[in-house]
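Journal club prep — side note

Before the paper discussion, L.F. wants everyone to see what a predicted structure for a comparable chain looks like in token form. Sequence:
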Amino acid sequence: MASRPSSTRISEAESRPQEWLDQRFVRPPVVGERMGHDEGIPGSETIAAFARRIYAAMDAIRQRHCDRQIVVTHGGAITFVVAAWTMLPIESLGYARFHAAPGSITELREDDYFHNRQVVGLGDIRHLI
């Protein structure tokens, strides 16, 4: 994934223990605006901003002309990697989340004829067993 520009402000949660984050985290609303929700941590980005960074990275990846590419990411990003691949609008992702286990493989493919984008497998862990 694309790294943050050096001018981007780091969240106050950076390098803090999970307990610190859990005490401050504001859950998103059940209904209403979820993508722009402020999670209560100064300096943290919204889900919409996070999604836009991943979409931009996926656009750059798609621009490369090669047969196969490997993208390594963490679980929180997999929803937006898959959504960007399948061209879902960011605005439609307020309630959608995909899950993939750590170390798993998600296979995305574009067919050579229609250029449809497929999610061939999501979170495959057979190689870990």
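L.F.'s comment for the group: The CA atoms of residues 11 and 98 lie 24 Å apart. Keep this in mind when we get to the figures.
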